[in-house]
Design goal:
The protein is mostly helical. It contains 19 helices and no strands. The longest helix has 53 residues. The chain starts with 12 loop residues before the first helix and ends in a 6-residue tail after the last helix. The mean pLDDT is 86.
Length: 766
């Protein structure tokens, strides 16, 4: 048997059939996404007023995405050339020589890595852009469906999010598997390009989308809610359309691209580490690189089963199994996916790989994702003690509200770290007595398991902005508040919006945890790959670990720990600058006669333009910092210090990301808790009260933390790790820099200074 020419890679019949089935599964995922899209698009878009609001959101988002594409294409082209040339610096790997021969290995890998880079960037762009466009198409349809009933509105919102989730699953699985089909055991050489393409686009989308959405949100809240005491999505507020656009470019496009690249890089690291185990295995079994691909395929099927079942739980025929609300229906479907994946992973691990421990690693990964749901929910849910504590703190003003939220965020980061550490301890226990590479591979496999239900995770996240936008469209378009149907529809959208806020917070936690697992996997691959390169170059002292007691390594560790703080500072500064401009613009428009009376329409496009310009300005400088600093550290302090740098980035970045995400989520839900109270200014309750104003201040502070700086750290951590992995062989070869080497260092230092200076420069007035 020689399916797709796979026999030349040494795969047996079962492995060949499995790889073909994985490819078919990827296609099934894309077909399922297409069918769901058609189902959503067949729904009506409601009244003319609803479509007017929706069209303004659509035009604003389209304009942002077109401008973003113009900004990032030159950077993609430049990095594609750099990747192509990087292959010619060191000798090709023995796997590449075995696959393609001595004469062709270098050229094939150079072309393959470059094409894979472009493919990874393209797939990430497709996931982000198509996912966001699908969300925009769904929001008005969900609002229209709310006038007919809860279940239909839920189905539209969730299935539209599932389209993005299945695109993420399908394209990630398709890309990684196709590269394996072509390159076989040499696939890590090309997969590095695939991973970098995805991570870089995710960084652009996360940073740009995060700045856009929070600048608009902060500006809209400060003037609309605090100063003018009007509702959140009041059409008189000039920033309201930009705010609704921002939900899509930040939460939909940014999150989808973020999880997509985590999905990619865990495969990259698993295959790099798996190849090392193939060499150590006396039988040279390829199970170490085939098993992760099979598990990914099983995860896609599980996600399809789980996501399809979500609306069914609401009307399940067996009463005691019926879901009480949308949140319970989503979690129950996630459990269905989890049980399916775990059961089939044991069958594959025992029947094919002959090692039950592989299935246990998958189970640990699935369990880690499941555990992060209640953990994040505890610190951000309105029903739990931490948020209630913040609500209580609002009685004494904004200062105590801020302090209470800070303490909640700090504590949550500790427990998140403990949960991840425990999962690593399980991997250590499973392979106790084995060489360290088995434990490192185990960590990568935990990442594979954790992201096996990417379709579910992205669906739950996209559900949030879709329901939020639908609620906003209803707020702006439904004016007859005495009509019973309107009241019911508003309540349906309010309920779905509340669930969406919870699912967004939870999936942010999963995204951060998956980013950490992916980064640790890449860190393990970094150590392994550096050792292999040193062997090929004939270097005597081969790196087998990172010695933190060495001064250079410790300096690298300190610099790595500082990078997330610098990156976050510049991201928040960008939001502050843009929000200040939007505040001034919204205030100016409120002074126009007729705006507050509702007889004159605000200039929404001007605020959209301010947000777009602010977001685009920050993309290249922040990406430059993320790419350049690890190379600088490696060239000056050498490759082991670069390993210390990566360890610092992972530790500091993970704790800072969880802290910012959960603190912001807790402040947001504390504000919502007060808004749900009966309005009584004398009793200091409800909207417009002093407690509410304190809650809005907390939410405003938390907005750039939870939706800009925190989430942007996820792709930044992975960009730094994968750039280091690609640059490490070059750093190993050219340990003595010489004149040309120091010239490169000077140029990189100049680029770093430019990146920081550009991010700190004030924007000119528009």
């Amino acid at each position: 048997m020689n399916l797709l020419g796979l026999a030349r890679h040494g795969l047996n019949n079962f492995e060949q059939i499995s790889i073909v089935c994985v490819l078919i599964t990827a296609v099934i995922s894309l077909v399922y996404a297409w069918l769901l899209r058609n189902n959503v698009m067949a729904k009506d878009k409601g009244s003319a007023k609803m479509q007017e609001v929706w069209n303004a959101i659509r035009v604003g988002a389209d304009g942002y995405l077109k401008q973003q594409l113009k900004t990032i294409l030159p950077a993609i082209g430049l990095l594609a050339m750099a990747l192509f040339l990087s292959v010619y610096v060191i000798p090709p790997s023995r796997e590449a020589i075995a696959e393609f021969g001595v004469e062709n290995a270098r050229n094939v890998v150079a072309v393959g890595r470059t094409i894979a880079f472009i493919m990874g960037a393209t797939f990430s762009l497709i996931v982000g852009q198509l996912g966001m466009r699908m969300a925009i198409q769904a929001n008005v349809r969900a609002a229209a469906a709310a006038q007919r009933g809860f279940n239909e509105a839920l189905s539209i919102s969730y299935y539209a999010g599932t389209v993005t989730g299945m695109l993420t699953d399908g394209l990630g699985l398709l890309g990684g598997t196709l590269i394996f089909v072509v390159f076989g055991t040499a696939s890590p050489d090309a997969l590095l390009g695939f991973g970098l393409g995805g991570t870089l686009l995710a960084l652009f989308m996360r940073v740009g989308g995060g700045i856009y959405t929070k600048a608009a949100d902060v500006g809209a809240d400060l003037v609309g809610k605090v100063e003018k005491d009007i509702p959140e999505d009041d059409p008189r507020n000039a920033a309201v359309i930009a705010d609704l656009v921002g939900d899509n470019v930040g939460d939909c496009a940014g999150m989808a691209a973020d999880i997509f690249e985590s999905y990619e890089v865990t495969i990259v690291s698993a295959l790099i580490l798996g190849l090392t185990l193939v060499a150590l295995d006396p039988t040279h079994s390829l199970k170490w690189i085939v098993y992760p691909l099979i598990i990914r395929g099983i995860g896609v099927i599980s996600s399809i089963l789980g996501t399809f079942a979500v609306p069914i739980w609401e009307k399940f025929p067996i009463k005691f199994l019926r879901a009480h609300d949308a949140e319970e229906a989503m979690f129950r479907s996630y459990e269905v996916s989890s049980i399916n994946t775990v059961a089939f992973s044991f069958w594959v691990a025992i029947a094919y790989a002959g090692d039950w421990r592989l299935a246990m690693l998958t189970t640990i990964g699935v369990a880690l994702a499941v555990v992060f749901n209640p953990l994040t929910s505890y610190f951000t849910s309105t029903r739990k003690a931490p948020v209630k504590e913040i609500v209580k703190a609002t009685k004494t003003g904004p200062a105590t509200t801020i302090l209470s939220g800070l303490s909640v965020g700090m504590e949550s980061s500790v427990w998140a770290l403990v949960v991840i550490a425990v999962s690593f301890i399980f991997a250590l226990a499973l392979y106790q007595g084995e060489p360290a590479i088995f434990v490192l591979y185990g960590v990568a496999m935990i990442g594979i398991g954790m992201l096996s239900h990417t379709g579910n995770n992205v669906a739950m996240d996209s559900f949030g902005p879709i329901s939020d936008n639908a609620n906003g469209i209803g707020e702006m378009a439904w004016h007859d508040m005495h009509d019973e149907n309107t009241k019911k529809a508003r309540q349906v959208m309010a309920d779905l919006d509340a669930v969406g806020n919870t699912t967004k917070a939870i999936t942010k936690g999963v995204a951060i945890a998956s980013a950490v697992i992916a980064a640790v996997s890449l860190f393990a691959a970094f150590i392994t790959d550096v050792g292999l390169v040193q062997e090929r170059l004939g270097i005597a002292n081969v790196l087998s670990g990172i010695d933190i007691s060495k001064t250079k390594v410790f300096v690298g560790f300190l610099l790595g720990g500082a990078l997330p703080w610098l990156f976050s500072s510049l991201s928040i500064r960008a939001v502050t600058r843009a929000a200040a401009q939007i505040v001034e613009e919204v205030r100016r428009q409120f002074r126009i006669p007729g705006i507050m009376e509702g007889t004159v329409k605000p200039d929404y496009a001007r605020v959209v333009g301010i947000s777009t310009a602010s977001a685009q300005k920050e993309l290249i400088p922040l990406a430059t910092i993320s790419v350049v600093l690890p190379i600088l550290v490696g060239m000056i302090l050498q490759v082991e210090a670069l390993g210390g740098f990566l360890a610092g980035v992972i530790l500091s970045g993970m704790m800072l990301a969880v802290f910012m995400s959960n603190a912001g989520g807790a402040w947001d839900n504390a504000k919502k808790s007060i808004e749900d109270e009966p309005r009584d200014l004398a009793a200091n309750t409800g909207k417009g009260s002093e407690r509410h104003k304190a809650g809005v201040v907390g939410d405003t502070v938390g907005d750039p933390l939870k939706d800009t700086a925190g989430p942007a750290l996820n792709p930044m951590i992975k960009v730094v790790n994968i750039v280091s992995l690609i640059a490490a062989p070059i750093i190993v070869k050219y340990q003595q820099l010489g004149v040309w080497g120091w010239t490169v260092v000077a140029l990189l230092a100049a680029a770093m200074i430019w990146g920081v200076a550009s991010s700190k420069k004030a924007m000119p007035d528009l």
